[in-house]
Amino acid sequence: MIVLSRINPRGIIWIASYPRSGNTWTRAFVNNLLHIMEDPDHAEADINRVEPWTAAENATEHYTRLLKKPGHSALPSEIAAARPRVQADIARRAGRPVYAKTHNANALDHGHPLINAGVTAGTVYLVRNPLDVAISLAHYGDLSLDEAIANMATPGFGVFSTRTYVRTIWGSWSEHVGSWAGRPNPATLVTRYEDLVAEPHDSFAAIARHLTLRPTPGQVERAVGLIRFERLRDQEAAAGFIEKPNYTDRFFREGRVGQWRERLSEEQIARVVKAHHPLMRRFGYLPDQAG
Q1: What three-state secondary structure class fits 244?
Q2: Domains identified in the chain, total number
Q3: C-alpha angle 107-110-113 in degrees, rounded to nearest 5
């Protein structure tokens, strides 16, 4: 369960994941649930407007303000040194608990933490079968499957800064998952994407409890209904989605579990398993565990 002061509740609540693992879906649930709990007549939250409860930790504007120079042109070492201060500033300015998406590993960058533990209230960490992640990542990043699989196995892998977002350090899939889920932490809830798909009500209700929210079962049911994959995809088709890169046609593509059985060759499956075997075994993702 997240840790918040009763007297002065504030701090960052991370919605963390390796890319393409259910982060946006989970944020959409939290966003809709908070709206429903405030307004019984809430019908639907815009996927492009998730305020007032969230913050983009890696938004360039935060680093520009702190560094007194354009954030997208800052050196990697400058961004690394500024990141803990940016996160502390986000928590201070919010003056309340604030949800923040991150694809950063919970690791060090140029000797500085990618996640400032001192201003962290807790985390929901999403993990997804890397065999399916590879397919989704290839589509999202305009990569071949082989390129996606290679990137996922590259230690310290990261993406460069853009004018909108500063650099992000994913690490390999195993590094990322291990950094967040390697050690038990009561303030971190580890949730499998596959469980969100198979048992959405129970899985999202567990997330709500971890966040110390107290919705009724009916409110959870309504929020889950509003984030059905088809509904999010329809929203994107109608109004676009600000997090979609220009080089891909859709952000919400399929969200289906087990696509790897149809899309990956035996050789590609073997490469993923070889690179990530220990954590795949732990989470039931090895081909002989996945049914």
Answers
A1: coil
A2: 1
A3: 35
Amino acid sitting at position 260 = W
Query: Residue 264's domain is classified under what CATH number?
Result: 3.40.50.300
Residue 232 · residue 252 · CB < 8 Å: yes
Cα 36 to Cα 38: distance, rounded to the nearest angstrom: 5
Non-local CB neighbours of 105 within 8 Å, separated by 6+ positions: 114, 169, 170, 171, 175, 176, 179, 180
- pLDDT string in tens for the chain (291-residue length): 887 767 777 899 999 999 999 998 898 899 889 989 988 777 665 554 555 457 889 999 999 999 999 999 999 999 999 999 999 999 998 888 999 999 999 999 999 999 999 999 999 999 999 999 999 999 888 899 999 999 999 999 999 999 999 999 999 999 999 999 998 899 999 999 999 999 999 999 999 999 999 999 999 999 898 877 666 566 555 544 444 454 455 445 566 889 999 999 999 999 999 999 999 999 999 998 765
Structural domain contains residue 290: no
Q: What values do phi and psi take at 99, rounded to 5?
A: -85, 140
> Which pTM does this prediction carry?
0.89
User: CA of 139: how far to CAs of 36, 136, 143, 172, 214, in Å?
Assistant: 33, 5, 6, 18, 37
* Alpha-carbon gap, residue 124 to 45, rounded angstroms: 21
Beta strands in the chain (DSSP E): 11-17, 54-56, 97-102, 108-109, 112-113, 120-127, 158-159, 168-169, 188-192
Q: Which residues are within 8 A (CB) of 269 and not within 5 positions of it... i.e. 6 or more apart?
A: 131, 260, 287
Q: Which residues, 6+ apart, have CB-to-CB distance to 104 below 8 Å?
A: 16, 58, 114, 115, 168, 169, 170
* DSSP-assigned letter for residue 59: B
Q: What range defines the domain where residue 18 resides?
A: 11-282
Residue the block writes with tokens 């390697």: 182
- Give me the helices (H) in 39-163, please: 60-67, 76-94, 130-141, 145-152
